[in-house]
Amino acid sequence: MNFIQSFDNKTILIPLLQRDYVQGGIEDVISPFMDSLLEKYADLNYIYGYEEEGCFVPIDGQQRLTTLWLLYLYLFSRKQQKNAFHVRMKFASREYAEDFCERLSEHLESLICKVDDKDALDEFIINQNWFIRSWISNASVKNMLRTIRVIHKKINKSNFSSIWNRLVESSVPSISFSFLQMNEENGLDDDIYIKMNGRGRKLSAFENLKSYMDEHISGLTFADEWKSKMDNAWTDMFWTNRNKQQEHPEEIDDEQLYCLYNLLILYHICRKELLNTLIEIKEKNPHLYADLASFLGKKEDTGTDEIISCIIERLQKAGNFPLIWFERLHLMSGDFYHFAFSNINKLAKWSKEFNCIKLYIGAPPAEATTGTYQLCMCEGSFNRTLPLLYVLLSYDEGATPLYDWMRILRNLILNTEIDSKNLPTIMQTIDTFSAQCKEKNIYAVLQSDEVAKATLKGFDKNQIEEEIMKASELEYYEQMNSLENGRFFSGCIGILFRLLPHEKHEGYDMLSQENATAYSSVLLELFEGGDKGVTMKYDDHKFLLRRALMSYPPYYFGKERNTYWSFNNGINEWREYIRKKDSEIGAFQSLLKELLIPAFKSEKDLFSLLSEYVERISQDYENNIRIKDDYSHRFHFIHHPGVWEYMSTQRCVWKDNNFDIELKTSNGNNSNRMELRTMSLYLDYKYNKDDISDRDGWDIGMWPKWKSCFYLNLNTCAENNRVIAIDVYFYDDEGYRNNEDCYAFDLFVRPTHPEGENEEEISLFAEEDYSLNIRLFSSLIPEQMGLFIQKEDGRLHSNRLYSRHSLKNVLRNLMTGIKTALEKNNDGN
User: Fold this and answer.
1) In the chain, N or C: fewer CB atoms in 10 Å?
2) What is the pTM of this model?
């Protein structure tokens, strides 16, 4: 039977238990399958199913039927005879797929008239206004689009007539299959579905690759040993290092696939084989090159370097990479099999010892997998796991223990910017260094200063110098190891020796066993390596470490970045602050030497001590602010955790003096801003019990724009229930901030009129507002009207600047006087 004869005027209903349509998503399946349908007689074997309410429900064969439906829909649409095609597709559990098939059936005929044979029909469909973008996330729809793309690419003006005649017009169409109705009459029932689908899952990507490799190594000298080890010793290694947290911990196919792909990446990264193959394909077979680019989601004129990057990225993620492309690109040459054979043997040899050394290699601390798994059995990264994997593979027994070899190279790799471009150089460096460390202990090699620098020149210069320096400080080996072996420091611990010089310096402790132990322990206590950088309890809603750092000269920490100041937002900025040789760490150094290190040596709890210290300074906040001090900004930062909370990314604009500091809520130029001292006063009135009582009945809020302020509002029955407001800000009438006594305020009734559209209207509104403000407040607080002058916008403006303490007294009298007068007036009414 053929497709049209079997299903004309019928609906194919894909049942609930069937999987997504996947045939079109596998390039080395759909392309040759389509060739067989279009070019020669094709017998598709049995299609099993049953009739139900006018629908045919396939039990086995839904992939083939979906592909045939798309093919015949395309043929009839291209022939402009869509009305003669009476086969529908429905899905019991995939609404997106059903909707897509219905829309495609409606529009494909008119669409084909608009596209050229060279156009990508799937992209053309996606760009139609009837195509709903969310469909593309559905696996069945995505794979149907890929099938349509293949169909359109293989059918053109030159072959359409012959294909149409062979598949539609011929009395004996060249596509046939046997149809078996599942019913009691034929002795078949639903149980067969269970039996047919109980044959197990389809072969995994690794099993397909393994079969492919077994075929291609058959002529190599180690073929038998390869097959034996793949089923025994190597399998044992993969099983031991499998990810036990995954959904199916009893399976190791993913681990084996990732390992082979990571080795394949390393092999091709430093060899020209793939590049030479692509250049040859591009020159001699441009259509194949275009197919490769299309498969990778790129345009046909994409350069070879970008194509290689896409191939490697696909391998990194162990994504769909059809075996047909392995063959076309010669990805697994004989030399690769030698490379893989040698290096999987090395992994099997060193895996157990490597797992036991408990060396931090850049993975999250909570990841419950082995070091071997992290290096080679999951997605590889250029800046960490791939070069570290090569380090392990390059280890050669001799004068250097495995731990020290991995430790030093770990430090260099995690602190060097590595990508696909410089990885070949890094790999060559590792090979050369490995040969040196086989003959001499690695620390002896490093102590040969100039030799080490010349050999390791591919790595970060500063990190090379640090490793050379540490090689001469092996009496502190234990302390260095403990500090290096965590996410925050990641092998870079120059701060320890910066804080502990060999010779006596004022303000510094000297390097000694006791001090090295104390400083490394405290540093690890403060910086645990979470995304925030600082250990959570020291940087939670109380911001203890930040507030404590502001108490020591130079009364700041962090770095100026572009047009703003950063107080270290996240692990990378804290690392930069700690690691950079030119960063200002005076406050950090003093905090350690004067407070935290003595506490550690006295076996005191650091967190409790730091909490008490910050609280002690905070308690004397009001008195500290009254002292004339060019560094008084520090007390606002120390006293108010809310200041830090407002700076969600720890940014501020810090101008030319310590009295002009604006806090930012984000990194952008359009970030909301609050001036530091205004913000501190706002926090007092919002949370301090005494200040809250002063504003009894008045609401409070902030206006974080332009010259920021906070406001106090009082809803009143006066003047038709208008709102009385006080705006408080920190700048003088010229807009400057240059001392601690720079507070001012406005008193006014909030306007209800629109903003003026021109100068005349603005001036008119200002006079009306001023008349209202004078009339109302002269009646409510006549004895305090001498505090004000007229402002251009009609508000009453304070006629002088105030200190923080004086301002609070004035505001207390104003708020109390206004509220009392209003209550008295209301009682009189």
Assistant:
1) C
2) 0.74
